[in-house]
């Protein structure tokens, strides 16, 4: 059965939220001291890396939502980066990441293939213009890239990093069933009726 590209992007948004959920079940077992402890990576700690994922999600999802509403780009994009670590405890990180994950899901749910070429303006010193498709592809790659660093950092703690590659295969549905139950999702929600959407 043909699956629209827009539906694949929606499954990537679900995968992102699922991976964040599963990874958080590991890192939230650490103490605040362990979250802040120096570790090897692009950013110096688990907390710093998790905050980077969050602030970049805020930045890009805001740009996507503004284009969808027909609003002008954010007048001060640096507001998303004025604090390197806006969330200084695990509870805040969990809440804010979950919220922006749901915003991204809502954005991808409304998309159709015919809309993927629409241009989104990313506010920078020199504004950047990319299609919805290219911007979403970049955002998902950014998330995967830095989530991998969190995964690696967990290897130096007492908490084993979880598997994050059990989302797409039909035969691995049982391995994600508990997470889906916690998130209120079903396999049909993601791969069933969604693929019937008109392009």
Structure explained in plain terms:
InterPro entries: DinB (IPR007837), DinB/YfiT-like (IPR034660). This is Damage-inducible protein DinB. GO terms for molecular function: metal ion binding. A divalent metal cation binds at residues 52, 142, 146. With 199 residues, the chain is mainly α. The chain has a single domain, classed as Four Helix Bundle (Hemerythrin (Met), subunit A) (Up-down Bundle), CATH 1.20.120. It contains 7 helices and 2 strands, in the order H-H-H-H-E-E-H-H-H. The protein has a two-stranded antiparallel sheet. The longest helix is centred in the N-terminal third of the chain and has 24 residues, at 46-69. The model is unreliable at 194-199 (pLDDT under 50).
Q: What would the principal axes of the Cα set say about the shape?
A: globular
List SSEs in N-to-C order: HHHHEEHHH
Instruction: Write out the CATH superfamily name.
Output: dinb family like domain
Main sheet summary:
2 strands, antiparallel
**Beta-strand segment tally:** 2
Strand order of the largest sheet: 1-2
Oligomer: single chain
- Please indicate the count of domains: 1
CATH class: Mainly Alpha
Distance between termini?
A: 14 Å
Which CATH architecture would you pick? Up-down Bundle
The average pLDDT score comes to 94
Strand content: under 5%
Write the CATH fold name: Four Helix Bundle (Hemerythrin (Met), subunit A)
Q: Could you say which structural class the secondary elements and strand pairing correspond to? A: mainly alpha
């Amino acid at each position: 059965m043909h699956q629209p590209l827009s539906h694949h992007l929606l499954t990537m948004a679900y995968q992102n939220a699922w991976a964040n959920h599963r990874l958080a079940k590991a890192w939230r077992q650490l103490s605040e001291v362990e979250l802040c402890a120096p570790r090897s990576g692009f950013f110096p700690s688990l907390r710093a890396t998790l905050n980077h994922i969050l602030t970049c999600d805020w930045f890009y999802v805001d740009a996507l939502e503004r284009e969808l509403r027909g609003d002008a780009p954010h007048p001060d994009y640096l507001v998303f980066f004025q604090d390197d670590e806006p969330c200084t405890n695990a509870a805040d990180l969990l809440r804010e990441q979950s919220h922006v994950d749901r915003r991204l899901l809502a954005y991808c749910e409304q998309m159709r293939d015919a809309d993927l070429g629409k241009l989104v303006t990313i506010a920078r010193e020199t504004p950047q213009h990319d299609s919805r498709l290219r911007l979403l592809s970049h955002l998902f790659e950014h998330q995967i890239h830095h989530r991998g660093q969190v995964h690696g950092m967990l290897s130096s703690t007492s908490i084993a990093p979880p598997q994050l590659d059990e989302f797409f295969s039909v035969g691995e549905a049982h391995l994600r069933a508990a997470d889906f139950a916690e998130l209120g999702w079903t396999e049909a929600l993601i791969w069933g009726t969604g693929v019937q959407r008109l392009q």
